[in-house]
UniProtKB/TrEMBL annotation:
The gene is LOC103647662. The lineage of its organism: Eukaryota, Viridiplantae, Streptophyta, Embryophyta, Tracheophyta. One of its GO terms (molecular function) is ATP binding. This is non-specific serine/threonine protein kinase. Residues 73-84 have a biased composition (Basic and acidic residues). It comes from the Eukaryota. Its EC number is 2.7.11.1.
Length: 555
């Protein structure tokens, strides 16, 4: 097939003809909802000739015009906002409504596609305040979110409990059934959004879900704006961030420390996501659409992250590790694994790839390892990612680089991720270094010792004593000699100082900080690669030993 060069394209012509001659039917459907960045991404993926920017902009204007003309938002009943109410006509046997013409809004959540057009509802009981009752469910008119395939989320209550009501068209009943089935299977896990009920009327399916305060994307975006001094109220990149967060009283939402490291709170939220994946994967469920927008934040008690939006999740049958791909379009652009883009076999590893992107997103205040939105899919397909923004956290580089492996079989399991050093507490970090020191002090295995010593240039470079405060160097000379070029001696020094911390003078305690948090921070700031480099060596030599089993779970 010969493709029409972009420089011969005339914007006033029929764009359907142009697209139909070059791009498959599924792409035409997707382009209906594309904005400029989506179109640019598609051109890169399809390797079409790059048009001049002006021609591209004219094309986009012509492309979206038929789908944006006279669009208005709709309420829960499908009625256009601001449209005049039709006068009711009286008949002998009562009142009847004249028919209404329906329109829809094109407003969508960040990076979520889908039309919101919906037919008029007929069978649900209307409420005096504009909402409606369907059995135990009450659905208000207050919209709190939108998704793909015409999905709208409203405030509501189910049997007296405040819930989020996810409304889907009856034509997408298969999606609703899949989501409810997998939520039922995974029910009562603290890191999965809870399902309360599923109701129907003649036009819609209503899924009643646990009400959360905001999404992980909202939380990250709001606090990244605040940390940069930008006002949330003046930024439209996130949907209702300010109102969602302002309702959370007394919630500690410090996400990054003053030196840019992820806070204990943020690490906990990321680990919640991993724990949710562990639970799903144990049940044989692949989420298939993991992204920050599909992780919700609950603060009814300790702040917690919960996986949601499982409408395209897949339940593997017993003893199955993968399924063949059938159909297209699952997952969200920029968050799909390479095999999803190629429509290859679906395995749990797809979720681990998306998790790598999500962890990077959290640490970097909303950035993506595969670049800007319009170029992510093509970069994922070509394995082009950049982790320079997390270089200052070697544990993050190690984990994310493994999660983003193009080969699904090379990615770690969710259980492994949950126990990775990135998520270790200060106490566990120090415990690992102490146990390693004990292990090599008692061994004559030259292979293990030589391998450890070979990483000295990576772990500390030069002489490690030169990176310590002078008072510590003076103090250590009172007890024994240390070889500043040996990683074995550095581990011994850390072990001895932590083991005899109470015996240290107040001045030395002031330098090292409190045990374990300050103590760990002192050595991590001077030798940031020490922990992960030692971990990599022990992974090869000692991961199967009982003494190190707690450090290498899921291996």
């Amino acid at each position: 097939m010969v493709l029409m060069p972009w420089n011969q394209f005339k914007p006033q012509g029929s764009y359907q003809t142009l697209l139909g001659s070059q791009i498959s039917y599924w792409m035409i459907l997707k382009i209906k909802r594309m904005m400029v960045l989506d179109l640019m991404s598609s051109l890169l993926i399809l390797k079409l000739p790059k048009p001049p920017l002006g021609t591209l902009m004219q094309f986009v204007i012509q492309l979206i015009k038929p789908f944006t003309r006279d669009k208005k938002s709709v309420d829960i009943r499908g009625r256009s906002e601001g449209s005049p109410k039709r006068r009711k006509t009286r008949k002998k046997d009562g009142l009847v409504n004249s028919p209404e013409t329906l329109t829809a809004s094109d407003k969508e959540c960040s990076e979520t596609g889908g039309s919101t057009e919906a037919p008029m509802e007929n069978s649900a009981l209307k409420d005096a305040l504009g909402g409606r009752h369907i059995g135990k469910l009450y659905v208000s008119n207050k919209e709190i979110g939108r998704g793909s395939n015409g999905t709208v989320v409203f405030e509501g209550s189910y049997d007296g409990r405040q819930v989020a009501v996810k409304r889907l068209l009856r034509s997408h009943n298969d999606i609703a059934e899949k989501e409810t089935q997998n939520l039922i299977i995974s029910d009562h896990d603290p890191n999965i959004v809870r399902l309360y009920g599923c109701d129907y009327d003649s036009d819609f399916v209503y899924i009643s879900l646990e009400r959360c305060h905001c999404s992980l994307a909202d939380l990250i975006q709001k606090h990244s704006y605040l940390s940069s001094g930008e006002s949330v109220s003046n930024n439209e990149a996130s949907f209702s961030i300010k109102s969602k967060i302002s309702n959370v009283k007394g919630m500690d939402v410090e996400l990054w420390t003053h030196d840019g490291l992820p806070s204990a709170q943020l690490l906990k939220l990321m680990r919640d996501v991993v724990a949710g994946l562990v639970h799903l994967h144990d049940l044989g469920i692949i989420h298939r659409d993991l992204k920050p927008q599909n992780v919700l934040i609950s603060a009814g008690g300790p702040i917690r992250a919960k996986l949601s939006d499982m409408g395209i999740s897949k339940h593997l049958q017993d003893d199955m590790t993968s399924v063949s791909h059938h159909g297209t379009g699952f997952g969200s652009s920029g968050w799909r694994a390479p095999e999803q883009l190629r429509h290859g076999r679906q395995t749990r590893a797809m979720d681990l790839f998306s998790l790598g992107c999500l962890i990077f997103y959290c640490i970097t205040k909303g950035k993506h390892p595969f670049g800007e939105y319009y170029e992510r899919d093509v970069n994922i397909a070509n394995n082009r990612f950049d982790l320079f923004m997390v270089d200052y956290i070697p544990e993050a580089v190690h984990l994310i680089s493994h999660l983003l492996q193009p080969n699904p079989e090379a990615r770690p399991t969710a259980v492994y991720v949950m126990h990775h050093p990135l998520f270790w507490s200060p106490e566990l970090r120090l415990s690992f270094l102490r146990d390693t020191s004990d292990r090599i002090e008692k061994t004559s295995e030259t292979d293990l010792i030589n391998t450890l010593e070979s990483i000295g240039s990576l772990a500390f470079g030069g002489k490690w004593g030169e990176k310590l405060d002078a008072a510590l160097v003076t103090d250590m000379g009172r007890y024994r000699k240390y070889n500043f070029g040996s990683i074995r001696d550095l581990l011994r020094y850390i072990r001895n100082k932590s083991g005899h911390y109470r015996e240290l003078s107040d001045d030395l305690k002031g330098i090292l900080g409190s045990l374990p948090e300050g103590f760990d921070r002192y050595f991590a700031s001077r030798f940031p690669k020490l922990l992960i480099e030692v971990y990599k060596v022990l992974w090869v030599h000692c991961k199967d030993e009982e003494a190190f089993s707690k450090y290498f779970k899921g291996s």
